[in-house]
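Give me the fold.
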Amino acid sequence: MKKTALITGIIGQDGAYLAKILLAKGYHVYGLMRRYATPQFNNTDYLGITKDIEFVFGDMTDESSILNLIKSLRPDEVYNLAAQSFVGISWDLPKMTTEVNSLGVMYMLNALKLFSPQTKFYQASTSEMFGNSHKDGLQTEQTPFHPRSPYAISKLYSHWLTINYRESYNMFCASGILFNHESPIRGMEFVTRKISHGVAQIALGLAQEIRLGNLDSKRDWGFAGDYVEAMWLMLQQEKADDYLISTGETHSIRDFLQIAFAHVGIQDWEKYITIDPRFKRPAEVFALHGKSDKAREKLGWVPKVKFEELVKMMVDADVARLKHKMADKKYSSVKTPVVS
């Protein structure tokens, strides 16, 4: 009999990549999504898996819908990836961010406790919970948390709640403290995709600038396709635990820009960048640098895609998308491209 998994946030980056590996492992995958007038399946379409997922409808902010869903499905595994995940907008939407990221997790855990306590639960925690807290420049599972955004605060609540349900009710509840992970299907509001798409536009003569905030921020960037494998591994262990997932390398936004522009043959990239104060955060996290020794030793997990390869992958994907649109004549005016 097939194992069943429920993925919340199924139409996001991580949900799509996780669904792909679970389907390849023979799971029956349920994907939770809100009921939209015109649902968007761009990410699952991109990975070629939309037809293989059974989509179910619900709302993480509606406790009754989560209770009914779990009572009906009683899945073997739940991966909670649903979130208001854009850090920058969380200052403008703190209530919505809290309702989805914090209360939604409470509703899900309580539903599992009542109707399916044997289900293994994964909570998507985040390196943003650390803020600027570190020891010797690195963050580990033991590093104190010091969240510096409404997003990070909401995630820290759900992180501790997951631990509390594990310790209080002997439920299998694991958290993955994932550092930044990107891919060609990253949302356009994230700086990495904003760069890869902007570089592709400039290379094809469709734009003249990219507007950004702090270029000196440093992050530990990995590939989402690698990181979702770690999520699955966490739920295959005998005992639930919390694991930090990172590459162990840190790079600045300047590094990302330099590699992205160089990949399309542009060396003097600075002239295409405009610093826009609107994109600077009220409280900045300056650097994130994870040490994932525990995951490597206990899960056998190692990242496969290197930083430079990730940047090039994202730029190539955006160039291909734009060329396809240009071929369909969706752009009426195109200047001489930098790349062929």
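Residues 332-337 have pLDDT under 50 and may be disordered.
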